Model the fold of this input.
Amino acid sequence: MAKKTLKSENNYIYRVLGIVSSAKDYRICHYINKELEFKFCAGDEVFVEQKIGQAGFNMKPYAYQPEESICKYFFINNKNENDLLIPKLKEMDYFLLVEGEILKTEWNHLVKTLKTINVIQHFIEIEIKHFTAIEHLIFESK
Done:
């Protein structure tokens, strides 16, 4: 029997913000929903396998897709008890992922509004080229 190989290329476009906040994820999502008129909803719990020898990571991502947009937003916790989803970014408490093309004006509005939310101490855009685990997060969160 002939062996066939399926090759898949990643054609996804996404941007990621790392967020520092001592507030609970549901509280931050509440403020984002209120200020940006989003409708983040908690999804089903997802188990993310870590490297061999490390415990897995349970998380409950929040997701939102506006009707008029091709973007989909994910809000994901980086910390679970004593574990880190992305150990390279241990200073980040949460990630806000934007999957799909986002207009520059929408992105600027998102960033400007996040700066006004008091429970968010700091956030920074994470460059994808240095961060390959984001792709895994998006697929696990769907």
